[in-house]
Amino acid sequence: MSQLESKKSLADDTFVMAEVRTSQLGNAELVPDAGKVHMDEAEGWGTGIINDFRRTVGTHWVKEVTNFNQKTIAVTMLMFISVIAPTLTFGAVHGKETDNRIGAVETILATTWVGVAYNIIGGMPMCIIGSTGPVLAFTKAVIRIADSLDVPYLTFNAWVSSWLLFYCLLAGCFDVTRVVRLATRFTDEIFALLIVSIFVLDAVGDPFSQVGILRYFDPNHKSHSDYKDDLNYNYLETALLSTILGFGTTTLIFFFRSFKTSAFFCNQGIRTSVHDFAVTMSVLIATVVKEFLFSDVETEQLNVPDQFEPTYQCCTSDCLTFFPDDCPDQAAAASSRPWFTDFSDLNGKGWVPIMAATSAWRLFALLLGQWYHMAHNQP
Q1: 8 pLDDT higher than 80
Q2: What gap in Å lies between CA 152 and CA 236, rounded to an integer?
Q3: What is the pLDDT of residues 263-294, one digit of tens each?
């Protein structure tokens, strides 16, 4: 018995000595290069792109695509609502900011093919692709620059996008995206705060623009001008209903999502199902309330053409004026703008494409932050 006690005492003394020695050592002695960011060696010209294709295309995401069950159905509907809602919202905002040169139809089409291509090639099927607040802010800046240069917005935006594509190809070929490792978690949180702040401001009420449900209480809001000759229209009814529907939908989402850890129902499977379909049910309930209980109250609707065509409808064949705002007495639009932009429509200013390179560089820096955010928040 005494022998066991002596061994235990010796072990305790050894442990205490080890603790004392460890407390006297610094991080550098315990773990070499502790706290330092270790950069991988840059891959050869285009090698990183080829390796990414081999790791992602037709590999691990196949199981997620072919796994058909309740969870995947719920996630698919959640993804659809999560994608279509901001796409329509930002499409409407883009339409207002760009005078309908880019609207809901364009944002839906872009989100569709870019989302499918990225999810298949990028290897992240759960990644939500769509318009965001920073992109909208950059779009506003591009509009101001194009107006100051007296060049068409779509042409200038096309040149900026072309330069951005060139920068991204160079970054992929030279493996420049490795530098996102130098950004800290603090940088990621700041970027996330920026995105959340823009989304909340755009939804509730942006003090710097006419966007947000609280803006409907302004009698001079642009949405009320369509009903200025309607004696039965009351802008306060519209504003109040829009506010109730907006905040009510958000409240319902949080309420349904709390079912998973609540005492409602007698089955965990039912509670999980309610949690999974929280967003879908909330949007459907708000839609039913509006269409059946308050059908006589006018609310702002999305500006979408009757046919699948560009949002910008023209008064004349040269497409210099917008229908119906610029020609209210005209019964129908003469045509719609072309799908493709004329890169040569620069009002005789051949130096504009070179200047667009600087604007594209700022957007490329924004994309680096987005890449870091996605890299540290993969599902």
Answers
A1: no
A2: 37
A3: 888 788 888 888 877 877 888 899 899 999 99
Q: What is the mean pLDDT of residues 194-201?
A: 76
For residue 314, the cross-strand partners are: 322, 335
Check: CB of residue 143 under 8 Å from CB of residue 351.
no
27: left (phi over 0), alpha (psi -120 to 50) or beta: alpha
Q: Which pair of structure tokens corresponds to residue 311?
A: 């949002």
- The residue with tokens 């550098």 is 28
Side-chain-side CA neighbours of residue 37 (13 Å): 9
pLDDT of 85-94, one tens digit each? 678 777 877 8
DSSP 297-317: S--------SSSS-S-EESST
DSSP character string of 316-340: STT--SBTTTS-TT-SS-SEE--SS
Q: Report the C-alpha gap between 131 and 138 in whole angstroms.
A: 11
DSSP strands (E only) in the chain: 313-314, 335-336
Q: What is the pTM of this model?
A: 0.66
